[in-house]
Design brief:
The complex is a heterodimer of chains A (161) and B (869). In chain A, 53% of the residues lie in helices and 23% in strands. With 161 residues, chain A is an alpha+beta fold. The radius of gyration of chain A is 19 Å and the shape is elongated. In chain B, helix 10 runs antiparallel to helix 11 and helix 21 packs parallel to helix 23. The chains are: A alpha+beta (161), B alpha+beta (869). Chain A: It comes from Citrus sinensis.
């Protein structure tokens, strides 16, 4: 299973963290510090796997962002690369050629999308289209709620004028 | 883009990003947090979601946000979807399963799992799947189980993954999920299929009942068919990756087949065809295809034997290994490690390639390759492989040297054909990377050297040469000074020169130089210095001409800040100066260290020893770290377990050096109690190898006859013409020491009797004996004597001991104790001391009897047991 997902920028800034195994707050920052030290310093031609504390961390760099996933020793590293790519493609379609800034200002969206791809550290959906559809449906639920709220407040505003 | 891009929220991110220093950022965050707290206190509902989003961002930056946890719960409890969505996100981000607050959310989760809006059900499932604790799993399992049959497939798949989390937290629940999970395997929706297969895999891992169920042809054939369908599926744009339809589904099916086929020949048989098809038909030019092939190989290697398939799998790995892509090579190395148990010969064929991978630029590949090489070593190839690795050791990265030396040492120890080769290789490793060598490795080397009596001269000369160029490699220096101390005369006199050696001339003073450099070198630690000190003492006797110089070096350490060195320096100085007559006996060459005991001890401390092949001179487990507690002590403390060195305190050193058994009371007050660990080093350096103190044959044994303070001093008194009362210093005791005194015969351990209890009329004495071969147990013969003129009747003796002891009382010889000492009662006690050698015996007693029909009770505590019972 995937124990955690990290998105780290080339400067070492954390853009997203998702923990599927329990780590205390202290451990989390230690893990992030340790791993960004290891991964950010690795050369470009090297393999995408780092052995770490009896686990493996599979990482892949997309532009300025490193996508990292920590898995068990016996898991399939090559498949994790595909899962990372799967996620990136879905982000890309959602934001329309995604960049780091999208993930900063809309970090919650990145989480929502991840939650449609992984649960409990396991893959949930292999169809990008399905994920996109589910996210869109939920976004529109939010939109509707917002419109309703504003129309109600309009009515109230009108009435109290 | 809707309300989440509201100015408040984006503004905060912008202002944080605009910060130039960490201090500035902290200030901004502090201000934001204060505002959020204020909003929380006012119970501001309009901005709750916005504040939560801000908190999450702040949380990601690593600031504490616990004060927002309750806000998440409130947000989840509100009615609308937007609030719930952000609330659940916050819950997953800000909390984890160990926080008590989480329990409060169980009720909300339960309601949401039953909500009419399927997206809200989805949110709850997702949160539950990601952070649920065991308690929540138990509470909510029925809801999740029901949702496995929900009408919308997107809920079913979420429920399936949620079930995985539940059975991982509470494996007992697994059986409830077998039937609903089996139903998921028949679905067409890929999301449901993938998650359903994953769920079945995890259920099978925790429940044998489930494993049997899914192995039945009814289920297994269905799975094989699903895999066949997806392998042969026409182009499906929705699931296509690099020309393969849904590689994720492929991989999950293969993983499940792996679990079902392992250990079941029939099940394995069912899947042979499809595995062969996947192994041969899958395109290997893209990562997705390779991921499938990799999984397929893994499955083939794990299921029951089918020769043909395995050849196919090994061939795939061979192809992987020659791939230019580092990722593929990495996984190939990884898988070859598993393949080695299946077909070692096939893996050996790739040895050259694997050896090249050890030298790869990529640390991950190097590490994998090294592990694999280590598994490939056997008697026939150990020499060339070791040579390659040692050559590479010179040029390898610093951070890789630790792993590399550990593995080299380990394989050399395991497979060395003869001792001289072993010693040669170890010397190379020590000279190259001595600082990376673990303690037990050079300890083992010393044991081997000690046993190779024909190689003593050769080894000490080789070490002398090596240390000239590699003085900064601490473990090399330690081994060298130990050998020079022991075999210095062979170094100088060229004893036992082998014809492969270059002639070398070393003077006595050259040899002392080495030790002097070691003791003065800035990088030498206390162990090295202590060893050097002992070596000097030994050399002072081997090289009488250098005696003066050695004394000077020793004396320089009189001012050492390390108490241990300071004390030794003073003691050794006195030995060199005043005790020529005993010096040579004192510093005799060490008896041969017992290999069997040493390796047995190492093996004992390492239960998970890899079994080594027979026929090697050494059979030591290796590369495994020992508990750190035993530095030199274990190496050299080879005295057998039934006579452990008594507890270590400052005086033990001399005690063991001379075999004198001085209990603390007889040590003169000025003798300081040196730090424990440091003393042990010297203590054991000198006492090693000698048989147990009680029955050894060294001349010093004369003094070891008694544990008792008084008698010990008495004997010393008798030996010593000089006055040596309690105030006499240890040195004075030595002064009076005559080496050739007759020694009392001492047959095995004997312990003096003690008076365990004494009142005006009742005396209890204890006689001790040890059953052979069981040092922990002591048999105590208790004898009661009544000195009063009255008979004691209804005599009962009771005893109690602390937890580390076990006590067994045999029946007493009677319950009437005759008067005036005209007879006695005896009773046997059997005490087992689990802390034998560490803690002395101690006992509480209660004696009850009737005197003239009046009850009498006498209680007492016995603390004066001989020390090492």
């Amino acid at each position: 299973m995937i124990h955690f997902v990290l998105l780290i920028s080339r400067q070492g800034k954390v853009r997203l963290t998702k923990w599927y195994s329990p780590y205390t707050q202290k451990e989390r920052s230690k893990v992030i510090r340790e791993l960004s030290g290891v991964i950010l310093t690795r050369g470009p031609k090297l393999c995408n796997f780092v052995e770490w504390r009896g686990y493996k961390v599979v990482y892949k760099r997309y532009a300025s962002l490193y996508f990292c996933m920590c898995i068990d020793q016996e898991d399939n590293e090559l498949e994790i690369l595909e899962i990372i790519h799967h996620y990136v493609e879905i982000l890309d379609r959602y934001f329309g050629s995604v960049c780091e800034l999208d993930l900063i200002f809309n970090f919650h969206k990145a989480y929502y999308i991840l939650d449609e791809i992984l649960i409990a550290g396991e893959l949930q959906e292999s169809s990008k289209k399905t994920v996109a559809r589910l996210i869109a449906a939920q976004d529109s639920l939010v939109e509707t709620a917002k419109e309703q709220a504003s129309s109600i407040s309009n009515i109230i505003a009108q009435a109290t004028k | 883009m809707g309300r989440w891009r509201s100015p408040f929220f984006a503004d905060m991110i912008r202002s944080i990003r605009a910060c130039k220093t960490a201090a500035e950022e902290r200030a901004v965050v502090r201000k934001e947090c204060a505002a959020i707290r204020a909003a929380i206190n006012e119970n501001d509902q309009d901005y709750r979601h916005r504040n939560l989003a801000k908190l999450m961002f702040i949380h990601m930056l690593g600031y504490p946000t616990h004060f927002g946890q309750m806000e998440c719960l409130k947000s989840i409890a509100s009615a609308g979807f937007p609030e719930k969505r952000i609330g659940y996100l916050g819950l997953m981000l800000l909390l984890d399963e160990r926080q008590e607050v989480l329990m409060l959310v169980t009720n909300s989760l339960k309601q949401d799992l039953n909500h009419t809006n399927q997206y809200i059900v989805g949110l709850a499932l997702c949160a539950l799947g990601n952070i649920c604790s065991a308690e929540m799993a138990r509470d909510l399992a029925p809801e999740v189980e029901r949702l496995l049959q929900f009408r919308d497939p997107n809920i079913r798949k979420k429920a399936a993954l949620c079930s995985i989390r539940i059975i991982k937290k509470v494996p007992d629940l697994a059986e409830n999920f077998i039937n609903p999970a089996a139903a998921l395997l028949k679905e067409k929706h890929h999301g449901v299929l993938i998650t359903g297969i994953q769920l079945v895999t995890d259920i099978c891992k925790v429940s044998t009942e489930a494993l049997e169920f899914f192995r039945k042809p009814k289920c297994l054939d269905g799975l094989v068919k699903t895999l066949r369908d997806v392998v042969n599926s026409p182009y499906a744009p929705e699931y296509d990756i690099a020309g393969i339809t849904d590689p994720f589904l492929h991989i999950r099916l293969l993983k499940l087949l792996h679990v079902l086929g392992q250990g079941d020949a029939d099940a394995s048989d069912c899947m042979n065809d499809i595995l062969a098809q996947v192994a041969t038909k899958t395109e290997s030019n893209k990562n997705a295809g390779n991921a499938i092939l990799y999984e397929c190989v893994e499955t083939i290697m794990s299921i029951e034997d089918n020769g043909g398939l395995r050849v196919l799998a090994i061939n795939i790995l061979g192809r992987f290994l020659s791939n230019r892509d580092n990722n593929i090579r990495y996984v190939a190395l990884n898988m070859l490690m598993k393949a080695i148990t299946v077909d070692a010969q096939a893996v050996q064929r790739h040895r050259a390639t694997i050896l090249e991978c050890v030298k790869d630029l990529d640390a991950s590949i190097r590490k994998r390759a090294l592990e694999l090489v280590y598994l490939l070593v056997n008697e026939s190839n150990v020499k060339p492989l070791t040579k390659e690795l040692i050559d590479y050791l010179e040029i390898s990265d610093q951070e890789f040297k630790g792993d590399l030396t550990a593995k080299i040492c380990s394989m050399v120890e395991k497979f060395s054909p003869d001792k001289i080769w072993y010693i040669d290789q170890m010397l190379k490793v020590l000279s190259e990377a001595g600082n990376f060598v673990k303690d037990e490795v050079w300890h083992a080397l010393i044991v081997v050297i000690s046993n190779a009596s024909d190689l003593h001269g050769y080894t000490v000369r080789a070490l002398y040469r090596a240390v000239q160029t590699s003085i900064e490699q601490e473990s090399l220096v330690r081994v060298a000074i130990w050998c020079i101390g022991e075999y210095g005369d062979m170094l100088v006199n060229n004893v036992g020169v082998l014809n492969i050696e270059d002639p070398i001339t070393v003077t006595e003073s050259d040899a002392v130089d080495v030790v002097e450099i070691a003791i003065k070198h800035h990088s030498s630690d206390i162990t090295t210095k202590a060893m050097a000190m002992v070596a000097l003492l030994k050399l002072s006797s081997r090289f009488p001409s250098c005696s003066e110089r050695i004394r000077d070096i020793i004396v320089q350490n009189k001012g050492s800040l390390v108490l241990e060195l300071q004390q030794r320096s003073i003691e050794f100085n006195s030995i060199v100066e005043k005790h020529q007559n005993i010096r040579s006996t004192l510093v005799e060459r060490m008896p041969v260290l017992d290999e069997a005991t040493f390796s047995g001890r190492r093996a004992g401390s390492l239960p998970a020893t890899v079994s080594t092949s027979s026929g090697t001179s050494l059979n030591l487990p290796n590369g495994v770290a020992k508990p750190a507690a035993a530095p030199l002590v274990d190496l050299l403390d080879l005295s057998s377990d039934d006579a452990p060195v008594p507890s270590s305190s400052g005086n033990d050193f001399l005690q063991d050096l001379l075999g004198v058994d001085v209990s603390p009371a007889s040590v003169q007050p000025g003798t300081s109690q040196a730090p424990k660990a440091g003393t042990d080093v010297l203590l054991d350096l000198l006492s090693i190898g000698s048989p147990p103190v009680q029955n050894n044959s060294t001349p010093s044994d004369i003094l070891s006859s008694s544990q008792d303070n008084k008698s010990s001093v008495a004997i010393l008194d008798g030996l010593s013409p000089a006055p040596s009362g309690g105030a006499a210093s240890m040195i004075d005791l030595l002064d009076g020491f005559v080496p050739n005194s007759p020694k009392p015969e001492d047959n095995g351990p004997a312990y003096p009797s003690i008076v365990a209890f004494e009142s005006s009329s009742l005396i209890l004495t204890f006689n001790f004996s040890k059953p052979p071969g069981n040092p922990q147990t002591t048999l105590i013969q208790a004898t009661f004597t009544n000195l009063s003129p009255n008979v004691y009747t209804d005599f009962v003796f009771q005893a109690a001991v602390p937890k580390f002891l076990q006590l067994h009382l045999d029946p007493a010889s009677g319950n009437t104790l005759p008067a005036s000492g005209n007879g006695s009662i005896t009773q046997t006690l059997r005490v087992t001391n689990s802390q034998h050698g560490k803690k002395p015996l101690v006992m509480r007693t209660r004696i009850a009897y009737k005197l003239n029909n009046r009850d009498v009770l006498e209680e007492g505590q016995i603390n004066n047991f001989p020390r090492d019972l």
